Amino acid sequence: MADSDHPRLILHGFLSPDVCKELEFIHKSCGTIGYRPNVFSTTLSHLIATNSPHLILPFLPLREKLKEKVEEFFGCEYELFIEFTGLISWTRGASIGWHSDDNRPYLKQRDYAAVCYLNSYGLDFGGGLFHFQDGEPTTFVPMVGDALIYTADSRNIHSVDEITEGERLTLTLWFSRDKSHDEDSKLISFLTKIPFNDSDTSSNGYLPLPASQNMYWFPPEESATYQSGFDIRCARLHVLGYQLYSTNATFLAAIHSTRESSDIILEPLRVVRGNYLFDYEFANILHLLQVVQFYHWKEPELKRSEVKLKPAKIVSISTSQQEGIQLLKLQLLKDQHLVETIFSSDNRGERLEHDWVSFSAIVDLWEAYTSKLWHNMVSGLPKWIANQSIFVDPNVE
Ligand SMILES: O=C(O)CCC(=O)C(=O)O
Ligand SMILES: [Fe+2]
């Protein structure tokens, strides 16, 4: 598998399927426009910036395990720092030609790369095969749970074929020997700016706060115009069969005026599916999207658990409400054809038979999941600050 001219390592089944699902949940509810066309990304600093710092916790054991593997394989124990951690997804049209990962002056600090595949070639996406220019293997077929580790220099020149369908998702890390590029110190400085108040978890301090609109607007071409393209959060809801309803009194007035309708989704929203409105107010679009994606992650588990469920509060939508829903959709998804081209693969909405009773239970389960992570993060933070390093605290469950 590896030779000294092309140092690389393949670990099959490195991540469990459930961890892959959890990271998929995070990416599909928190991801933003990426660094190349048709690419989406979720960085840890973005999670902190959108008041979801607790969502960095699921990454921590994986970062530690990967760093250990890299140091052990390349014989550089205790020498490396994590330079970057992120979830990166590629959709139809995305590709990358031959390159090494340190091939720009501002990337010279990168010594090693680790790419973990969170879904599978042939099943979740088409195209997207990984190739090494020299040495074995020449081609690597991404499969869920596998990790590919290699040096970031010219001994491992590689490329990725264009994605032809679906969404190819990875957890990607780069490692550096240069302490000045340690991701942890940067993240800790962001974390210390958040005004945590753990004493009262009922204060909903953990609700996500959207970043600026341009981070979520998918332009069909290079120019970031809002005249065409779509909002990726609404697009992700749309392909799963959900729509938005705003109770905002100024909503209809706003939508007919020049006011950016993007502002409306930063305010309380309700969710609609088919002819029903779910009678629950979400704080904003990210809150709603997190709950919907959580539903798609956890619903099969909930079905198996035989938990006794309460009836859901839903109401039929009126014709005038339907009008408002359509108008908002037109504002946020200017190019629905493009939405389908980019995210159509996400037909989990069709595979999963929607059930409002389960959905209603998921709202509470999302809250329990979130507040537990939030509490754990707040408990770990003083130690992270003291050590200037983010790590799994063995005393916290
Ligand atoms: O996702 C992959 O398989 C590799 C991506 C890559 O080469 C890069 O981001 O530099
Ligand atoms: Fe690369």
Largest sheet: 8 strands, antiparallel
**Stretches with pLDDT under 50, minimum 5 residues:** none
Oligomeric status: single chain
Q: Which CATH architecture of the largest domain?
A: Sandwich
Domain Fe2OG dioxygenase: 69-177
Keywords: Dioxygenase, Iron, Metal-binding, Oxidoreductase, Repeat
GO molecular function: iron ion binding; L-ascorbic acid binding; procollagen-proline 3-dioxygenase activity
Cofactor: Fe cation; L-ascorbate
Keywords:
single chain, 397 residues, alpha+beta, Jelly Rolls, 2 domains, eight-stranded antiparallel sheet, four-stranded antiparallel sheet, globular, binds 2-oxoglutaric acid, binds fe (ii) ion
Characterise this structure.
With 397 residues, this protein is of the alpha+beta class. Helix content is 35%, strand content 22%. The chain has two domains: 8-194, q2cbj1_9rhob like domain (Jelly Rolls); 213-375, no CATH class. It starts with 7 loop residues before the first strand and ends in a 10-residue tail after the last helix. The mean pLDDT is 91. The structure holds 2-oxoglutaric acid and fe (ii) ion. It is an enzyme of class 1 (oxidoreductase). Keywords: Dioxygenase, Iron, Metal-binding, Oxidoreductase, Repeat.
